[in-house]
Amino acid sequence: MRLPRLRNRRLLLRLLHEAAHLSGLDASLGRDPRAALQVVLVGARTMARLNAAFLGHQGCTDVLAFALGEAGDGAADEPGDGPVVVGEVYICPAVAAEAARRFGTSLADECVLYAVHGMLHLAGYDDTTPAARRAMRRAERRLLQRLRDNADFGAIFADASADTGAVGAGPVSPSPLTAPVRRARQHHGKTNTYGV
């Protein structure tokens, strides 16, 4: 599957900002205005490599989240006055498309769910026990409902087929999308990067 083409950058950034706020992630990332979160769309092979390298799991997965440290603690600091990436959420649209077909949702629904799920992990939620998993699912449903009340997820991707979970129509070159005043750093390989 090719990465989906983005139709409405502003909508996606607004949803990501709102999700970061509603999940409590913006508060947990620290008060440094340079703190930034990256949400990265990757192909299935890249996701499988990340899953193997960082979790020791074989195969592709839907979402991975990485806390990189807090701005100002030296762990995630980068030179200059630009943003300090303190967390990354990697999403695999190929897995999202399959889930959309299986559950009767859209690619956009699944990708937003995965972004919210990753942000909740970075905000301190866990899903390793049944009780924690239930709490995390409740938080996901609450956040997704709030986001849906304010936006049409179907307007995120350009391809009409993206809303049905079908394979996108054409290749997408890597292109960082940035939130106002924040620049997302470019990732190598077949990715789209969204700075939040």
CATH superfamily: Metalloproteases ("zincins"), catalytic domain
**Shape label:** globular
For the termini, the CA-CA separation is 25 Å
CATH topology, which one? Collagenase (Catalytic Domain)
How much strand content do the residues show?
5-15%
**N to C succession of SSEs:** HHEHEEHHHEE
Task: Give the C-alpha Rg.
Answer: 16 Å
Structural class: alpha/beta
Q: What is the CATH-assigned architecture?
A: 3-Layer(aba) Sandwich
Mean pLDDT: 77
Q: Please summarize the sheet with the most strands.
A: 5 strands, mixed
Number of domains: 1
Q: Notable features of this structure?
A:
Collagenase (Catalytic Domain), five-stranded mixed beta sheet, disordered C terminus, globular, alpha/beta
Structural account:
This protein has 196 residues and is an alpha/beta fold. It has a single domain (9-195), classed as 3-Layer(aba) Sandwich (Collagenase (Catalytic Domain)). The chain has six helices and five strands; from the N terminus they run H-H-E-H-E-E-H-H-H-E-E. Strands 2-3-1-5-4 form a five-stranded mixed beta sheet. Helix 1 (9-23) packs across helix 6 (130-150), helix 4 crosses helix 5 and helix 5 (107-122) packs across helix 6. The chain is globular and about 40 Å long.
Topology:
Blueprint: H1 9-23, H2 25-28, E1 35-42, H3 44-55, E2 63-67, E3 84-91, H4 93-103, H5 107-122, H6 130-150, E4 176-177, E5 191-195
Parallel strand pairs: 1-3, 4-5
Antiparallel strand pairs: 1-5, 2-3
Helix pairs in contact: 1-5, 1-6, 4-5, 5-6
